[in-house]
Design brief:
Structural class: alpha/beta
Strand content: 15-25%
Number of strands: 14
CATH superfamily of the largest domain: Aldolase class I
Strand order of the largest sheet: 1-2-3-4-5-6-7-8
Number of domains: 3
Number of helices: 19
Radius of gyration: 34 Å
Helix content: 25-40%
CATH topology of the largest domain: TIM Barrel
């Protein structure tokens, strides 16, 4: 902002509470979860959901495990009313699920709301009215505190009168002082205590006092102070369920909720992926998975998060951002070379540790990944993606995970340079298939200028304990045949090249593997050679059904790459 603009703003007042206790607490169990996707989330959509779309999302919320679901504002519109009736008439509400309906403290709306609940087995009637100084002054034309409190009391009395009209419905009562976050604490307490006095909660019939950060005005620590102060002073705390409902105007709605739970709250309202007015509601997915990442069972099932995201995007016509924690397309992806290398080492080490411990529940520990992506239905294939910022470890990870090549570590730089040079030259990310193609084109079975025409081991010599090969090769169009002896097929072929005066290297390393993801009969071999004059080291890869031929092809490939390097 420009300096002159800043003058119109004031800091949010702190809560005087030097003996606050929430900073020393730890979250050890999940709260009561309440989804408000079908009401608060729906009302914020450019195109609100149809009844059919709301039914689809309701079924998904049930599948995830929500036991309290706010289904709408049935007195506000026919679509809202009809949706609730469809849930009832189609028998869509499970026995263990309580539906929640929102209503303003106005007589005709309250009566219409009770009409919508006919036949519902368990319901939360959620009454609210605005209480903040700004709302009292602007929205209600300088209404007094007494008038606003009386609106809440009158609404609470009417609801209490109407509860007996639904004898087949188990009703829980909920009150929200809307804009609690910027209401004077003592006044918000006064109004909530007045409503509680009307509803008379007890051990068998608790009430929900929902304290909305309707607009996020303060830092999360101030919100936590507000919640702890309220919990200390509210009447009949033991008969009250303190509920949170944060928004994200300052970008700290999740932190405010987590600190609010430390401050004593029992319940949390929010939406999938943070859908809601302005910058959105609390993202229930993030809060729940944050708890999962600390070993806390939440009762919510996000093990197929991609499917949940797809349903959400289809019914809301919104898109989950690529960087949205847990659900975003890129949140488990590393482009940075150093990150990629650490992730690859983490997976390699974890595989070794789990094998040695023989414990499938071995504690998770991979650098840069707070949880195992597979635990929420995400695959490993998108964890490392390659662009010009990537490094050798990332390329090796892709070749291993996606193409089955377990490259020797000292081969990583040689291969990685080709790949990220290509990405840098083209100025874009390379796909996994492109990376595999580059490797195959530059490092596998390269057969020019040297190609193997024939190779045969002398089995008579082998019976005598010798390894003798008869080979024919073509080098730059010249055919050369001869014999070589050694301690193995590769060594005998190297000696054949020496006798033909085409050996100017030594073999410094050899590895082989069964090629994962390829033909069951395929083997891959890797041979490193060092040029006699320059000392340059180069790897080649060979693939063949025969492990011996794969090794020879790898050696020939390395020899040819040495020539292409023009050492």
């Amino acid at each position: 902002m420009k300096p002159e603009s800043i003058k119109k703003y004031r800091p949010f007042p702190a809560v005087e509470m030097p003996d606050r206790t929430w900073p020393d607490r730890t979250i050890t169990q999940a709260p009561i979860w309440a989804s408000v996707d079908l009401r608060d989330g729906n009302q914020a959509l450019p195109v609100p959901m149809s009844v059919e779309e709301k039914l689809r999302l309701f079924d998904e919320l049930v599948r995830i495990g929500f036991k309290q679901i706010e289904v709408g504002f049935p007195s506000a519109a026919d679509t809202e009313f009809n949706f609730l009736r469809a849930l009832v008439e189609q028998g869509r509400i499970p026995e263990d699920v309580t539906i929640q309906v929102l209503v303003q403290a106005r007589e005709q709306l309250i009566r219409r709301t009770f009409e919508s609940l006919e036949g519902v087995k368990k319901a939360i009637v959620h009454l609210y009215n605005s209480t903040s100084p700004l709302q009292r002054r602007v929205t209600f034309g300088d209404a007094s505190k007494e008038k606003i409190r009386d609106i809440a009391i009158d609404g609470a009395k009417l609801i209490k009168e109407l509860v007996p009209t639904l004898p087949g419905t188990e009703i829980t009562l909920q009150y929200s002082p809307e804009s609690f976050s910027d209401t004077e604490l003592d006044y918000a307490l006064e109004v909530c205590n007045a409503v509680s006095a009307v509803w008379e909660p007890n051990d068998d019939r608790k009430i929900i006092l929902n304290l909305p950060a309707t607009v996020e005005w303060s830092t999360p620590n101030v919100h936590a102070d507000q919640i702890e102060w309220f919990c200390r002073h509210v009447d009949k705390r033991e008969h009250s369920i303190i509920s949170l409902h944060t928004h994200n105007d300052r970008g700290t709605g999740i932190a405010a909720t987590e600190l609010g739970l430390l401050a004593g709250a029992d319940r949390v309202e929010g939406t999938l992926f943070g859908n809601g007015e302005r910058t959105g509601n609390l993202d229930l997915v993030i809060v729940a998975l944050n708890m999962n990442s600390h070993g806390i069972d939440t009762g919510l099932d996000f093990s197929d998060l991609s499917s949940t995201r797809q349903i959400y995007e289809e019914v809301t016509r919104l898109v989950v951002p690529e960087r949205q924690p847990y659900a975003g397309e890129l949140v488990f992806t590393a482009f940075s070379g150093s990150h990629q290398d650490a992730i690859k080492k983490g997976f390699d080490r974890r595989g070794k540790d789990v094998d040695e411990s023989n414990d499938k529940d071995f504690p998770w520990g991979v650098p840069y990944l707070t949880i195992d992506p597979q635990d929420i239905g995400r695959s490993y294939e998108a964890i490392i993606r390659i662009n010009s910022q990537s490094g050798k470890g990332g390329v090796a990870y892709i070749l291993d995970r996606e193409h089955g090549f377990d490259l020797p570590k000292s081969m990583h730089p040689q291969v990685g340079k080709f790949v990220y040079d290509r990405a840098d030259r083209e100025g874009r990310e390379l796909s996994n298939d492109e990376i595999g193609d580059i490797f195959a084109d530059k490092f596998v079975n390269i057969d020019a200028p040297l190609s193997l025409t024939s190779f045969e081991l002398d089995h008579t010599a082998m019976a005598r304990g010798e390894v003798v090969c008869h080979a024919t090769v073509e080098i730059n169009g010249e055919t050369i045949s001869g014999t070589g002896k050694g301690n193995g097929p590769i060594n005998s072929f190297v000696n054949f090249l020496e006798l033909s005066e085409h050996k100017d290297f030594s073999v410094t390393d050899y590895r082989s593997q069964a090629l994962r993801g390829g033909s069951d009969a395929d083997s891959a071999a890797y041979v490193q050679i060092q040029h006699s004059d320059s000392g340059k080291l180069l790897w080649g890869c060979g693939i063949d059904p025969s492990i011996e031929m794969a090794g020879l092809k790898a050696l020939i490939c390395a020899w040819n790459l040495l020539r292409k390097e023009e050492v």
